[in-house]
Every structure is written in structure tokens, then in C-alpha cells.
Specification:
- It is a single chain.
- By secondary structure, the chain is of the alpha/beta class.
- The chain has two domains: 2-71 and 166-242 and 345-394, FAD/NAD(P)-binding domain, CATH 3.50.50; 111-161 and 246-338, Polyamine Oxidase, Chain A, domain 2, CATH 3.90.660.10.
- The chain contains 13 helices and 21 strands.
- It has a seven-stranded mixed β-sheet. It has a five-stranded parallel β-sheet with strand order 9-2-1-13-21, covered by helices on one side. A three-stranded antiparallel β-sheet has the order 10-11-12, with no helix packed on it.
- Helix 2 (44-55) packs parallel to helix 5 and helix 2 packs parallel to helix 13.
- The two termini are 38 Å apart.
- Mean pLDDT is 92; it is low at 13-29.
């Protein structure tokens, strides 16, 4: 994935800095008249676009199918006990993801290290189990994911309190502009404006606008009735863009018995499944161990029933962390390929289809991590949304 991104940056014309986060007191640039904007999706791309367009003086409404903001930024707080939480989606923030960090700073969202400095991690090479410092885990992960990341992973951060605090910060500032439980089923446009039909409580409603921003994955956009004016090439890209499967399984333990054995709870298996201890910095005696499986392993997990995912993961991790089974209290799982409003974790559009995928179709614009060199990251969603904000603001 990361090697592809490097090639993407090298081969495409978009390997330049994105639009900067807009200065705090500008309302309309260059006397551009206010527009009525409909944004489909309250994920990171839709939220950040809504925030910036509102600050530019535009009339914004965001339609979100779920009952929460954030999209694939999803912090799980249930069914865990004692206020524990773990991430189902976006988790890590590299130190060079400037857009993500700008919004983190703007909204005063707290950060902490992604990885603990103390205790050992586990790596596996064939049948050999090794206890290594956390740097050893990071080095092994770098070899698995690509040299582009190298030692930078040691300086990755996470949001203290849960990654969902960032989309919640956007949503708090856009509260009166977001309509939840409002999936869009049809988009239309003509020379005078654009229109969406969406379901609210199961009842069709219609809204009109000057411009529409589609800030949802193509995997769900292809289930919406699109305007006849869309080019065949655009339709083809929307239809065929592949979304990768990611599966995560969570095990809550009554006691963090692994820490008593000098283990941090982080590990990397022979088949490149990451094991995290997301609660290492959270208070209390209970803890959560979780697996993070990418394509190749994620599909196998997604094919199981939820109880099978949990039992098989308990069997796997119980061998790595003695005492886990005796302290196991309950589990959960998240497979993004089966999520109704995502149908996958991320997508790599590549340089060949980027221009078509990201270009506007009349009054309809597009944003999302799949339309950025930083696909699979919050940085990608934010980068693409600022490009779309510029397009919409400057559109005649």
C-alpha cells in the first residue's frame, strides 16, 4: 500500500502541497457570492469541507446516513467496561500529517504517543517468538508496510480520549447544519442548480442547492441514482474502485496480566496481523487486546460469525499472552467490508484514474481519502476536502 502511494506521488501531478487551512477570520474570498451547498456524508472529508465552506460564508447542509459523525473514524466505547475504548477505524497520526495536526491544534484536541515506551512487544519469524523493545515491533512493522515509513512510526501519535474526538469537534461547530439518519438515494442537476433526494425516517425528502459535494466512499456512492449527465468514464471509475477489507477483533480482560509478565500487549504475527493494546494509557485494571487484520487475513475473519471471530482470536492471543483466557470477559469485532455505509476500509485510486475520479461533474464535486495521495488516512480525507472547498468557492 505505501509503495503504491510513493509511486502515486511521483507519477501524478498532484504531488504538491494542498490548500492550507483557511485563516480564522476570512468569510468570503475575492467577493465570491455565497452559495447553497449540500454535502453528502459527515465523515472527515464532509465535516472539514462543511466547516471551511461555512467560514467562507456559504450556506451549508450536511446529510449523513449514520446517527453519528466521523464515518470511518469510529471509536468503540461499547460493549467495554469502566470507560475503556478502542478504535475501529482511524487511529494513528504520523508527525508529518500537517493538515490533521492543524485541526487537532485548532480544536485543542489532546494527543499522546501511539506506542508505550516501556515493556516488550512480540514478533514472530517462522516459529520463533521474540520479545523485543517497542522499537523492534515498529521496525518489524516498517518492514511489513514499506520502507517509506521507516523509523517515523516511533513518533506517531493518537488522540487521547479516542479518535472520534476530532470529528466530534467539527460536528459541534456544525451541529445545526448536520442532518443525521438521512441517506441520499438520488442526485440530480441541471443548468440552474442541483438536487438530492434523501430518506429521513424512511420518508423521501428533497433539497436543492447551487453545488453538491459527494464526500462518501465510491463503494456507497455507486448505490445512489446519479445524474444522467455524468460521463461514462466517471461512472466506470465509481463502479470499479476497489475497497480493501480490514477486520478488527477486541478482547476485554479483567486484569492486564500480560503487563505483569513485562509485555506491552503489542505484537506482529507471521501473517502480518498487528496486535494492539489500545488501553495501555487508559486508567484501571481492565484492558483490551485487539487484532488488526489487513487484506489477505481480513476476509477470513469477515467470513466468520461474530462469536467465531472472538473465540478464534482468544485462542490465538491466549497462546501469546498466558493468563488472557482466564481473565477474558467479553469481546467485539468490526469488519469494514460489511459496514453498510462504507463497504470497505480504504481505496487506492491510482494516478490513471485520479483526475477523472476527483474532477467535478457539472455542479457535483467529490472528496474523500480515496481521492488523495494519502488514501487510508485522515490526512487524505482532509487534503481532498480542501481541494473541493477551493473548487466550490471559486465556481461561477
Amino acid at each position: 500500500m505505501f509503495i503504491n502511494r510513493r509511486k502515486f506521488l511521483k507519477q501524478s501531478a498532484i504531488a504538491v502541497a494542498g490548500v492550507s487551512v483557511l485563516p480564522p477570520h476570512i468569510s468570503i474570498i475575492g467577493g465570491v457570492p455565497s452559495k447553497k451547498i449540500l454535502i453528502i456524508g459527515a465523515g472527515m472529508a464532509g465535516l472539514s469541507a462543511g466547516y471551511e465552506l461555512s467560514r467562507l460564508g456559504h450556506d451549508v447542509t450536511i446529510l449523513e446516513a449514520r446517527m453519528r459523525p466521523g464515518g470511518r473514524v469510529n471509536t468503540l466505547r461499547e460493549p467495554f467496561s469502566d470507560g475503556l475504548y478502542a478504535e475501529a477505524g482511524a487511529s494513528r497520526i504520523p508527525e508529518d500529517h500537517d493538515l490533521t495536526l492543524k485541526y487537532v491544534k485548532l480544536f485543542d484536541v489532546p494527543l499522546e504517543p501511539m506506542y508505550p515506551a516501556k515493556m516488550s512487544a512480540l514478533t514472530f519469524n517462522g516459529g520463533t517468538r521474540r520479545e523485543v523493545p517497542i522499537e523492534g515491533f515498529i521496525e518489524a512493522l516498517g518492514r511489513t508496510l514499506g520502507d517509506e515509513l521507516g523509523g517515523k512510526m516511533a513518533r506517531w501519535s493518537k488522540i487521547k480520549g479516542g479518535t472520534d474526538l476530532l470529528p466530534k469537534a467539527f460536528a459541534q461547530r456544525l451541529a445545526d447544519k448536520i442532518r443525521y439518519n438521512s441517506p441520499v438515494v438520488r442526485i440530480q442537476q441541471d443548468a440552474n442548480g442541483a438536487q438530492v433526494v434523501f430518506l429521513h425516517g424512511g420518508t423521501p425528502e428533497t433539497m436543492t442547492a447551487d453545488r453538491i459535494l459527494c464526500a462518501i466512499p465510491f463503494s456507497t456512492l455507486r448505490n445512489i441514482d446519479l445524474p444522467a449527465s455524468f460521463s461514462e468514464r466517471k461512472r466506470d471509475v465509481i463502479k470499479k474502485l476497489n475497497y480493501d477489507s480490514v477486520s478488527r477483533v477486541y478482547l476485554q480482560a479483567r486484569r492486564r496480566v500480560w503487563e505483569g509478565k513485562g509485555l506491552s500487549g503489542f505484537a506482529l504475527t507471521n501473517d502480518a496481523v498487528e496486535i494492539w493494546h489500545p488501553t495501555w494509557s487508559q486508567p484501571g485494571s481492565r484492558g483490551i487486546l485487539m487484532t488488526y487484520a489487513r487484506p489477505g487475513q481480513a476476509e477470513r475473519i469477515a467470513a466468520m460469525k461474530d462469536n467465531e471471530r472472538i473465540s478464534s482470536t482468544l485462542e490465538q492471543l491466549g497462546k501469546m499472552f498466558p493468563g488472557l483466557r482466564e481473565n477474558f470477559e467479553g469481546g467485539a469485532s468490526k469488519c469494514w467490508i460489511e459496514d453498510e455505509w462504507a463497504r470497505g476500509a480504504w481505496a487506492f485510486i491510482g494516478p490513471r484514474d485520479f483526475a477523472i475520479g476527483s474532477s467535478a461533474e457539472g455542479r457535483i464535486h467529490f472528496a474523500g481519502e480515496h481521492l488523495s495521495p494519502w488514501f487510508s488516512w485522515m490526512q487524505g480525507a482532509l487534503d481532498s476536502s480542501l481541494r473541493a472547498v477551493k473548487e466550490i468557492n471559486e465556481a461561477v
